[in-house]
Amino acid sequence: MKVCKFGGSSLADAGQLTKVIDIVLSDPQRRIVVVSAPGKRNKGDTKVTDLLIALAQKALDGADTTAALAAVVARYAEIASDLGLGDGVVREIETDLTERLAQVPSAGGDAGGFMDLLKAAGEDNNAKLVAVAFQKRGKKARYASPKDTGMILEGEAGNATLHLDSYKRLARAFSDFEGIVVYPGFFGYRMDGSVATFPRGGSDITGSILAAAVRADVYENFTDVDSVYPVDPRLVPEVKAGIDTMTYREMRELSYAGFGVFNDEAIFPAVQARIPINVRNTNHPGEPGTMIVQTRRVMPGTVTGIASAGGFTNIIIDKYLMNRQVGFTRRLLTILEEEGVSYEHIPSGIDSISVIIRGDHFEPAVEKRTVTRIKRELDPDSVIVSHDYVVLMVVGEGMCYSAGMLARATTALADAGINISMVNQGASEISFMLGIKSADRDRAVRALYGAFFGE
Ligand code: ASP
């Protein structure tokens, strides 16, 4: 059996949805279809999830929600009308949204929970609509609810994680079913029955969880690119060949550093259950896409991909004879822990240590407090905070035990006149990271592409 997930751009309008139905019906193994909310129909368009966030915000602000609600309903109505599904399903969607809006908390109430309730409506209603579209084609298909099937989540609103009991419940719910099941991505329910969502882009996670729960033969993730590319084609338009096979580890490292094609948290459930992931294009279903698997044959000395992620903050702490001070790093980590700051990397020298933090984990007020405490409690010679820091990541199983990989990268950057302010290589040797200023980002990625993939 195959679990296939279709992203928002694959479901943005009736034309796209028709492609989705054709793809699913072309292979009887495709039995579980996970859907996102309708995405952008064109560049200037707004995703339904973003319309829902705006709607929820209006409700929380006590403002008039009429126009914002109509904008969401109009997206579904357009698809339903273009496919001739009748307006019953649209009326149901409108009623559902109105009922959700009625649950707006009063001031001081659970605004995060309400936001999740509204965000989840995008996928939930789309799954109902897509099931109707399959039925209209004369196929046996039904919507399945994350509540009834046991998709139990926990953790903070908008950033929930899976409760591990879910696997048994989902496996039981799907132990025997007929036809095609259309399942909404992106959300689940807490033990208390309230809705919780994964982080943005989280329908990939739902698909991966279901694939693991039902022990699918493959998890097909349909999006709008032919494959995963070794570098962002927007930065290097000449990149033509996609990656045909890569390992889970490679994908995890690349998606961590900005490969948006597959949500990095989504890899984990598939990895645990050893389910191959196939990234494919809804618009070119004949293309084989990229397979992501546990192991593959590697050519020594080769790189699989180059990623770059911006928005990091780097705190550089200098203290003469730091290497001789027992407990310096522990005290630094204690400050970070007490301030609730999760760090990404801590490269260190003899008399200096840097803490690299993702910008979205570091609010200005927390930054100020953290830096003040570092100055007061660690008595450093200097503390420099540098924003706008970019991490370049060069990834490839073929780099293990291959001499000269880092040299190629640093030479390429030196030739391009780019200063490297941090180098970090994990023990696995399948990747290394280079820290640079954001102004150099595009040139740096192109220089690295030239070094590893050029003629
Ligand atoms: N619709 C949600 C988002 O826009 C989840 C998803 O598409 O995966 O983030």
Number of helices: 14
Dominant shape: globular
Major pleated sheet: 8 strands, mixed
How are the strands ordered across the major sheet? 3-6-2-1-9-11-12-10
Percent helix = 25-40%
Average predicted local confidence, pLDDT: 94
Percent range for β-strand residues: 15-25%
Rg, rounded, reads: 24 Å
**Ligands present:** aspartic acid
Q: Distance N terminus to C terminus?
A: 41 Å
Number of strands: 17
What structural class do helix, strand and pairing data support?
A: alpha/beta
Low-confidence stretches: none
Description:
With 455 residues, this protein is of the alpha/beta class. The chain is built from 14 helices and 17 strands. It has an eight-stranded mixed sheet, sandwiched between helices. Helix 2 packs antiparallel against helix 5 (111-136) and helix 7 (166-173) packs across helix 8. The longest helix is centred in the N-terminal third of the chain and has 26 residues, at 111-136. 44% of the residues are buried. It binds aspartic acid. Aspartic acid is lined by residues 7-8, 36-37, 47, 49, 122, 185-186, 200-203.
Topology diagram in text:
Layout: E1 2-6, H1 14-25, E2 30-35, H2 48-61, H3 66-82, H4 88-101, H5 111-136, E3 141-143, H6 146-149, E4 153-154, E5 161-162, H7 166-173, E6 180-184, E7 187-189, E8 195-197, H8 203-213, E9 218-223, E10 245-247, H9 248-256, H10 267-272, E11 277-281, E12 290-293, E13 305-318, H11 328-338, E14 352-358, H12 364-378, E15 382-395, H13 405-415, E16 422-425, E17 431-437, H14 441-453
Parallel strand pairs: 1-2, 1-9, 2-6, 3-6, 9-11, 10-12
Antiparallel strand pairs: 4-5, 7-8, 11-12, 13-14, 13-15, 15-17, 16-17
Aspartic acid is lined by residues 7-8, 36-37, 47, 49, 122, 185-186, 200-203.
